[in-house]
Amino acid sequence: MTPNLTYLAWTALLTAMLWLPYISGQVMTNGFLAPSNYRDPTPREVPLWGQRANRAHINAVESFAPFAALVLVAHVGGVSNKATAMWAALFFWARLAHAVIYILGIPFLRTLIFTVGFVAVVGLFYEIVM
């Protein structure tokens, strides 16, 4: 398996697991769901870090699609080199750092790290089309 696909798999796992901090905040604040919660889906209070965890998860899902598409296009097109591996690795580590920084509520650094992930997507695109 290419490094691109390996980082795609790790990014998929990271994205899939990012709902856990939000749900942990729900349970810590409100306890486990009761049968009535399934009938009445009124939002329950969540601490600010839990709300940020929810946004980090949503953001990860949104940014996963273009990354995954480009990694798959690179794979199908036979484009796999040190540059594509670097961009894929950079994207994964930026997304991991972004989630942690977002949940911790560190301003400005979150935007910087998000931008690094975006640059990685653009770099991957460049490697494919050039």
Describe the structure.
With 130 residues, the chain is mostly helical. It has one domain: Four Helix Bundle (Hemerythrin (Met), subunit A) (Up-down Bundle). It is built from six helices and no strands. It has helices at 3-17, 19-30, 35-39, 48-76, 82-104, 109-129. The chain is elongated, with a radius of gyration of 17 Å. The protein starts with a helix and ends with a helix.
Record keyword descriptors for this entry.
single chain, mainly alpha, 130 residues, Four Helix Bundle (Hemerythrin (Met), subunit A)
Write the layout of secondary structure elements.
Elements (H helix, E strand, L loop, with lengths): L2 H15 L1 H12 L4 H5 L8 H29 L5 H23 L4 H21 L1
Helix pairs in contact: 1-4, 1-5, 2-4, 4-5, 4-6, 5-6
- Average per-residue pLDDT, rounded, comes to 94
Global shape: elongated
Weakly predicted, low-confidence segments: none
Q: Can you tell me the CATH superfamily?
A: Membrane associated eicosanoid/glutathione metabolism-like domain
Structural class: mainly alpha
Any idea what the CATH architecture is? Up-down Bundle
Largest sheet: none
Radius of gyration: 17 Å
Helix and strand sequence: HHHHHH
Using the coordinates shown, work out and report the CATH topology: Four Helix Bundle (Hemerythrin (Met), subunit A)
Structural domain tally: 1
Please state roughly what percent of the residues sit in beta strands, choosing from under 5%, 5-15%, 15-25%, 25-35%, 35-45% or over 45%. Answer: under 5%
- The helix fraction, in percent, is over 70%
CATH class: Mainly Alpha
Per DSSP, the total helix count is 6
How far apart lie the N and C ends?
A: 23 Å
Strands, count: 0
